[in-house]
Automatic annotation (TrEMBL):
InterPro entries: FAD-dep_OxRdtase (IPR006076), FAD/NAD-bd_sf (IPR036188). GO terms for cellular component: cytoplasm. Residues 8-368 form the FAD dependent oxidoreductase domain. This is 4-methylaminobutanoate oxidase (Formaldehyde-forming). Signal peptide: none annotated. Gene3D superfamilies: D-Amino Acid Oxidase, subunit A, domain 2, FAD/NAD(P)-binding domain. The lineage of its organism: Bacteria, Pseudomonadati, Pseudomonadota, Gammaproteobacteria, Pseudomonadales. Coiled coil: none annotated. Keywords: Oxidoreductase. One of its GO terms (molecular function) is oxidoreductase activity.
Amino acid sequence: MSTSQHPDILIIGGGILGCAIASYLSQQPGLSVTVVERHGLGEQTTSYAAALLTRVRPYRELTGLVMETFQAIERLSDQVSEPLPLRKVGSLQVSATTAGRQQLEQTAERAAEVGVIAHSITANEAVERAPWLALSPDTAALWLPDDGYIDPYALCMAYAAQARKQGVRFRLRQTVTDILQQGSTVTGVRLASGERIEAGAVIDAAGPWSTALARQLGVNLGMAPVRSHYWISAPHGRIPVDAPMTILPDSGAYARPEVGGLLFGLRDQQAVFAHPDQLPDSLHDYCFDVDPTGEEALAGGYEALHTQCPLLDELQLAHYVSNVSSYTPDGFYLLGAMPGVDGFFAATGCSGAGIGMSGGIGRLMAELVTGQTPFVSPERFRLDRFGTIDSYDLAFIRRCAEARARKRTG
């Protein structure tokens, strides 16, 4: 089948990263961009995210990315009839352990460096803000009033709307089956229909499916599909709808209000992952082979979370939400070009932070693809930083799953 178009840049994936990248690329004059998505926009991993937006991250580059997302939300809100549903309720970090207190101290130091408001408060003041907590008097607490959370689907749609307005073409319910290559240069993609779309550059932003696509080029992306999940309780009188997010490094958990109930997430204590080449076309109703209902994870993490959140005993669980996150062994993302493969870029492996980092990743990828000076250093995100790997190797996949179990931030 003959080629129907020749965009300068083709993006595979219409989740929040693909749409954010398209939004930022659309601001470049004279650049034609096409997004190809197998389903509808934001229907797969994006819509299942807890979407915590914390401004201060463990590294300067990560803080820069998430700060850009907050700025993007402000800009996008100015362009629509109703502001985006950013719930600016603040975040509360609490810890009674030495390691956790050090994390809070480091967060406060980084906040001061970048001009983010952060106040140390007492345990009693923390409980007043988040009544589901019960804290010992010696518990350290850090309050960041400008943090919040957002409806991830709404943010994805806002990126897409701006991109469309600027001329980006979206091809929905079209499946990319092959990335086309001549020698060491990527030249476009082939769709399931047989149609070829030639492009000056291809960006692989297909979430957990990115790995299989990249392997066609001999590129092994350093990430794996790992379970990410949370629970939502029925409404309870002690959960104010405007209460803050709480990040609990002592138990590796987080919690925030959700329609009168409590949404809380726990880290898996065992490796729960999928093999990259065994993912279904759609993740709706997808269950992992290990602990498919999350009951083992809940039982394993319950006691530690209950120590600071005894209200768990009174909550009636209403929903369990499980989906796939793409984790790397070091928790940094996979952003940029692959040395030795011209015209190929990847934007994936966000390790549970894709919503919060979306604006920053959109801007960084747009700068890298168009040869501009990046606003944050891309070195930590290099695709080749793990050396020679096999992204289908079970030992490597377990390394990625273990990285999620070690995560202690929101």
